[in-house]
Amino acid sequence: QERTFIMIKPDGVQRGLVGDIIQRFEKRGYKLVAMKFKQFDEAHLKQHYIDLADKPFYPKLCKFMSSGPVVPMVWEGKDVVKMGRAMLGATNPLQSNPGTIRGDFCIDLGRNICHGSDSVDSANKEIALWFDKTELASWSMCTGDNVYE
Ligand code: GTP
Ligand code: MG
Where is the catalytic site (predicted)? Predict the structure, then answer.
């Protein structure tokens, strides 16, 4: 099964949206494989956002992301990388559709409360950066044949 890396950013934690965001993935039928609640240092965030290293907002972004606890998670299920991005909504909340996480809860690009991997390849890299193999739970969700045909 496909896996993706979803993270609730410090602004999402501060605004009390942790439960709501997790619930959307649970309700959809996706399976939680790993989760933490922890503040990470700037060096770790610089590694996470390494592909954006040449962008002018990179230092500010990494500083903000390390300013408080975040909720990094791994979710598993059919097409979860693409669907996770769709559930988050467009990067710029002003372009996110209502009904998406960003479209329901935020306004500013620099305070868009969540992160989602943009491809299976980045998902694998991000999962490896944020979690040790032993932190990925191997379990079956008792959904029977009610989520997948
Ligand atoms: P993520 O799921 O957070 O990775 O969003 P994304 O993949 O849709 O966007 P991208 O990876 O290009 O950018 C990562 C994050 O940097 C975004 O979620 C924004 O919070 C922030 N960001 C992106 N572009 C800008 C920008 O032009 N200005 C500022 N201030 N922040 C930006
Ligand atoms: Mg991205």
Answer: 115 (pros-phosphohistidine intermediate)
